[in-house]
């Protein structure tokens, strides 16, 4: 595993509020990542983000203890299944709840995801906020704007170009 410096996509929102346990968003698509982060922050949540499973493990091993992990499956470097296997193998990390958010239905067929909630993208903002509220102590506010539309548009782009490498999807 490569030695990582400061995580490349950690948003300051998670760093500035150490008293609140963040939600760890693991998503490689920069537009979906930014839109999801903005939605959660606008609704009062603290968010740490990672662009792949390796970066997420780095956050976790540096002491980030999220209340919830939102996990994409198809990512470069370390995909969601490998991340989940590594998480489950680490006694300090295995109790952190995971929710899979993916356009790929493969999670339902993998034993590593037994007992993990799975939602297919695209989700609308109310559905995502409802999922997060089940795990996070501070519930969402009414401030959800165009997140759902941004994610739906990005998901549609990915569906139109199914042969793009994962890093470009």
Report on the structure:
This protein is an alpha/beta fold. It has one domain: Rossmann fold, CATH 3.40.50.
CATH class: Alpha Beta
Specify the biggest β-sheet: 5 strands, parallel
Please tell me the overall pLDDT: 75
Q: Strands of the biggest beta sheet: in what spatial order?
A: 2-1-3-4-5
What brief labels describe this structure?
single chain; 169 residues; alpha/beta; Rossmann fold; five-stranded parallel beta sheet; 5 strands; disordered N terminus
Topology summary:
Elements: H1 12-15, E1 23-26, H2 30-42, E2 47-50, H3 53-61, E3 68-71, H4 80-89, E4 98-102, E5 117-120, H5 125-135, H6 147-160
Parallel strand pairs: 1-2, 1-3, 3-4, 4-5
Brief write-up:
The chain is of the alpha/beta class and 169 residues long.
